[in-house]
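Our consortium's second objective concerns turning raw sequence data into structural hypotheses that experimental partners can test. To show how far this objective has progressed, the report includes one record in full. It was chosen at random from the queue rather than selected for favorable results. The single chain below, 62 residues long, was entered without modification.
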Amino acid sequence: MSVLSPEQIVELTEVLVVVMGVAIIWAVYHGSDRAELPGDATVPPPGEVDDAGPDTSGRSLT
């Protein structure tokens, strides 16, 4: 026998799913007002040299 009835288990599951949904939404949107939006990116000075290739320093799979 379980301490909780089936109705209580369903209600507890519903509450936990709603709380997890709110937590996920908060985690996604927290700090999003500081995100760099398209069109807001800074334009580098014209005299600055572009990168010749991608930065491959750091970890690798080999």
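The partners drew two points from this record. The chain has one helix and no strands. The helical segments are 6-29. Both points have been shared with the crystallography group to help prioritize constructs.
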